[in-house]
Amino acid sequence: MSFDIDVERRLGDRSIGVRFTAGAGLTALFGPSGAGKTSILNMVAGLLKPDRGHIRIGDRTLFGDGIDLPPEARRIGYVFQDGRLFPHRRVRANLLYGHHLADPADRWMALDEAVDFLGIGHLLDRWPHGLSGGEAQRVAIGRALLRAPQCLLMDEPLSSLDAARREDIMTVIERIRDTLKLPILYVSHDRAEVDRLATQLIALDG
Amino acid sequence: MSFDIDVERRLGDRSIGVRFTAGAGLTALFGPSGAGKTSILNMVAGLLKPDRGHIRIGDRTLFGDGIDLPPEARRIGYVFQDGRLFPHRRVRANLLYGHHLADPADRWMALDEAVDFLGIGHLLDRWPHGLSGGEAQRVAIGRALLRAPQCLLMDEPLSSLDAARREDIMTVIERIRDTLKLPILYVSHDRAEVDRLATQLIALDG
Amino acid sequence: MLSSEEWGIVALSLKVGGVAVLATLPIAFALAWLLARKRFPGRMLLDGLVHLPLVVPPVVTGWLLLVAFGPFGPVGRWLESWFGVSLMFRWTGAALAAAIMALPLMVRAMRLSIEAIDRRLEGAARTLGASAWHSFWTISLPLALPGVLAALVLGFARSIGEFGATITFVSNIPGETRTLPLAIYSALQVPGGEAMVTRLALLSVALSLAALVASEWLVRRGHRGQDRHVL
Amino acid sequence: MLSSEEWGIVALSLKVGGVAVLATLPIAFALAWLLARKRFPGRMLLDGLVHLPLVVPPVVTGWLLLVAFGPFGPVGRWLESWFGVSLMFRWTGAALAAAIMALPLMVRAMRLSIEAIDRRLEGAARTLGASAWHSFWTISLPLALPGVLAALVLGFARSIGEFGATITFVSNIPGETRTLPLAIYSALQVPGGEAMVTRLALLSVALSLAALVASEWLVRRGHRGQDRHVL
Amino acid sequence: AERGPLVMAAASLQESLTEAADVWAAKGHARPIISFAASSALARQLLAGAPADLFLSADEPWMDAVAKAGLLRANSRTTLLGNRLVLIAPVGSTMKLTPARGFPLARALGSGRLALADPDAVPAGKYAKAALTALGVWTSVASKVAPAENVRAAMALVERGAAPLGIVYATDARASRSVRVVGTFPASSHPPIRYPVALLKASRHKDAAGFRAFLLSKQGRAIFARHGFSAP
Ligand SMILES: Nc1ncnc2c1ncn2[C@@H]1O[C@H](COP(=O)(O)OP(=O)(O)OP(=O)(O)O)[C@@H](O)[C@H]1O
Ligand SMILES: Nc1ncnc2c1ncn2[C@@H]1O[C@H](COP(=O)(O)OP(=O)(O)OP(=O)(O)O)[C@@H](O)[C@H]1O
Ligand SMILES: [Mg+2]
Ligand SMILES: [Mg+2]
Known about the structure:
The complex is a heteropentamer, with two copies of chain A, two copies of chain C and one copy of chain E. Chain A is an alpha/beta fold. Chain A has helices spanning 37-45, 91-101, 111-118, 133-146, 163-180, 191-197, and strands at 3-11, 14-22, 26-30, 52-57, 60-64, 67-68, 77-79, 152-155, 184-187, 200-203. Chain C is an all-alpha fold. The chains are: A alpha/beta, C mainly alpha, E alpha/beta. Chains A, B: It comes from Sphingopyxis witflariensis.
C-alpha cells in the first residue's frame, strides 16, 4: 500500500476532502475543474495544511498523529499545474536546484538523461522568461524528477505538450512507475493518458 | 478569405515565421512545443511586432503597408495560454473589463450567457487568486468573448478542463464559428479537438 | 490637552505636510514612471537630480530655494511679476520645501512598485480594448498601489519632520511657517525646554502614527483577499 | 583639484556612510521581513518606531542619542563599563546617527520588494528539498534584490547627507566627525562662504551620483535578460 | 486682528524677546511677529529680499553683511544688548577653575573635550576662541574642542556629561539647571559681545520703529537684564 490519505480542508466557503488508499503504481486523480485535485496534491506536498486527517506514503507518516513534516522532509517531487520556475535562475540552475540539495546516494536520474528525453538541451542557458508554455512545463518536470524524490505528484504535467513529446515523457513515467516503483499521484483530464498510465483511479466530484 | 498572414520575427537566436491564407471558419495552428504558435498569436494581437510582413483579417489590414494598429484597435478576443487575469479585480470585473469598453452595438454575448455555459456563476465575487487552474481558464475565455471581438485568438483554451466542460465550450465555439462567422485562430495539441473544430489546419515545425 | 497655540502648530503641520505630499504625488509618480519604464539620454542625470535633496544637507537645499524663489531670485521675481505670488515667509513656501525633501523617497517607493508590475497584464488589457491611457488607469496604477501608499506614508512623515530647508528658506514665523519641527527647535533653544520638546515631539509621532494606521487600513481595504500573483 | 583637507572630509564621509549603510542593512532587512511577513501584537508600534527618525527633527534624534549614548546615558554607561567603548565625538557615533536616520528609508524599500515576492516560489523551493532557511537565501532574498539595492542607494544618499543628528550627537570635529554636510554647515555660517558651500555640495552630489551609477550597474548585471514574471 | 511688524531675531533671544513683545502688546499695540532662527539663516533671508521690518542679530558680521547690501534704514542700527562668556561644568562637577591668563584649562580637561559653539562659524564660538587666545591657552586646547551647532547644543554636551567643560553665554548657563558656572571670562579677554538691532529699508510697518524704540527704552532693557543680558 503506497498511499493512505484521508484529509479534509475548508477553502473559502467550501470543503475539500478525500479518503483513499492505493497500492503501488500510479494513482490518477480524476474530477471536474474545481473538484479539489490541486488542493489535495498541495496537502500531500505539505504546502497546504489539512484541517484534519492523515497522509501516509509507504510506511512513512507525513501528516497526522501529531506529525506534520515540512515540505522539504517529505521527499516529494511536485510538478505544479503552473510552471512555477524560479525567474532569477537560468534553466540549468532551475533543473539542478533540488538535485544539488539531494543526497547523492538517493539520486536516480542524471541531468543529461532528463535533458535528453525532455528535449530541453538547447534551453539550458536561457532564462525562464521567454520560454514557451510547453518548454516551461518540460523544465518543471525535469526539476521535479532531478530532485531525487521518493514519490511524485504531477498536476496535468503534459497538458500543453504535443503528441510526440507526450509519448516520450509517458514512457519515462512508466519506467519510473515500473522500475523504480515510486508511488505517483497524477492529475489529468486526458482519458487516454490516464487509461495508459494509471494503476488505480480515484474520482472526485466537484 | 479571413486570414492573410505573412510574418517573420527574430526571438533570441531563432526566427519565427509563418505565411498562410485561410478561408472563413476556424484555423488551427498545429506544431510542436516551441514552434512559435504563441508568438504568432501575439503578433496578430499586436503584442509582438513582426520584423516584416503583413497581417490582414477579412478586408482589414492590421499590420503592414505602413500600418500597425495598436492592440485595442484590432478588435480581437485573445485567450492567453496562461490565464493572465487581473489580480486586483474580482472575477466579475475581469469578465466585464472589455465588455464595458466595447460599443454596445457590437456586443454579441451577454454576461449571463457566458457565465452560464462556462459554469462560473458561483465565482463572480471571488478574486482571481484562489481560483483553480480550470476555473481561471474559463474566466479568461469569458473575458475574451465578452469583449465583443470580431476575431478570436485561442491558445490552448481547453487544456485544463474536464471532458464535460470541454464539450460545452466546444459547442459554443462551433456556434461562434458557424452562426457569427467570426474568424478564429486556434492553437491546440489535442488531435480530437482540432479534428472537430478546425476548418483548416496550419502546421508549424519547430 | 493641547493649548490653542499647539493646535495651531499641529494644524499648520498637517496643512503643509498634506499639501506637500498630495501636490508632489503626481509629479513623483510621473518621475518614477519615467525612470522605471523609459530609456532616454539623460536618464541617469534625472535619477541623480531626483536624489539630490537626500544628499545635499537640508540647509543647502533651503538656501538654494531662497536664492531661486526669494524676491531677488529669478523664479521668485517671475512668480511675483506674473502672478503676484510670493512664497517668502508663507506656508506655501514651507510646503514647497517639504515637497522637495520628500520627493526622492516618494519617487523610489513608486518606482519599485512600477518595476514589479507584470507588464503582460497591460498587454492583456490592450487586447480587451483599453487604450494605453485606460490601461494605465485601470491596470498599471492600481497594481502600483503599494508603492503609491508607501510613498504617501514616507512623504508625509518626511514632510512632517522637515526642518532645515524650511527654516532656511521661509524662516520660523508663528502661524505661517512654524511647523512642529520648527517649534521643537524653538523650544530646544530655551534652556530647560526639554518638557516642551518632548511634548511636541510626541505630537509629531502621534501624527505620523495616525498616517501609518490610515495607510495600513487603506492597504488592507485594497487587498481584501486578493494577491498579486495569479496562475 | 581637492585640497588634502577636502580629501579627508570626503574619505570620512565615505567611511561613515558606508559603515552606516552596510551595518544597518541586515537589521533593516530583518525589520522589513518582520513587517512584511509576520503578524504579531505590537506590529503597528514597531512600524511606527521604525518611521520615527523620519518624523522627528534630526536635532531631536541627535539629542536623544546624546541622552542615551552619552556618558550619563544608560546605553553609554553600559558600553563604557563593559566594553570600554564610547561613541562620543567618534566617527562611530556619526555612523550610528547616519544609520538611524537611514533606517526608515531602507526598511520601506526592502519591505515593498518583499511584499512583491511570489510566495508560491518559496513553496516550490521547499518541495525541492530546501529548508526554510535555504529557500530564504536562494529564492526570497534574490527576488527581493531590487528593494535591497534601492535601500542601499537611499540609505547611502541619506547617510552622506546627514547633518542635524550628527552634529548634535557627536559635534563637528575635524577628521573625526566632520563629514561633508558638517563642513558645508561651517562654510554657510561665514558671510561670503558661498563658494566653499557650492564646492562641497558639488562634491557630495558627485559621491551620490557615483553610488547611483554603481547601483544601476548592479541592477543591470543582476537582470541580464531575466524578468520577474514567468508563466 | 491687525498684524504686528515682522521681527527677525537670533534664536538666543527667544525668551527675552518674547516677553518684551508681550509687554509691548499689552500696551495696546499689535503683537510683533517674531521669527527665531540662527542669525546666519535670517541674514541670508534678508539678503535674498525677504520683506521684514526689524533685524536682531547675535553678532556684528551678519549685520554688516546686511548693511553692505544696502538693506538697512539709515541710522537705525544700534547695539541693543551685551552678554558675557562663562565656563560651565555639569552640575555634579566639583571643578574649580578661574578663567585668567594661562589658567590650566588643558589639564582640567584631561582626556575630555571642551564644548563650544563652532569657533570658526558660530558667534559664541568665535568669542570663546578669541577669549582663550587672549588668555594664552587656545593652542593647548585647540585639539580638544568639540564644536557644536550652536550654544545650546554645546551646553547640551555638558549637561549630558559628554564634555567636562564648556563655554557658553552667561544667559544660557543661568537658565539651565544641569550646569554649573565655574567661572566668568574677563570682559577684556574678548571683543565685546554685542547684539545689534536695525530697521530694514523695506519695512513698511508703522509700528516697526516704535517697537525698536521700546526695546531700547528703559523698560525694554530691564526685561533683557532680567534674563541675564548686560547693557552694551
Ligand atoms: N483561497 C480560496 N478561497 C476560496 N476558494 C478557494 C481558495 N482556494 C481554492 N479555492 C477553491 O477550491 C476549489 C478547489 O481548487 P483546486 O485548485 O484544488 O481545484 P482543481 O481540482 O485542481 O481544479 P482544476 O482542475 O481546475 O485545476 C476551487 O473551487 C477553488 O476555487
Ligand atoms: N525572448 C526570447 N528570447 C529567446 N527565445 C525566445 C524568446 N521568446 C520566445 N522565445 C522562443 O521562441 C520559441 C517560440 O515560442 P512560442 O511561445 O511562440 O512557442 P509555442 O509554439 O507557443 O510553444 P508551446 O506549444 O510550448 O506554447 C520558443 O522556442 C521560445 O523559447
Ligand atoms: Mg488544479
Ligand atoms: Mg505557446
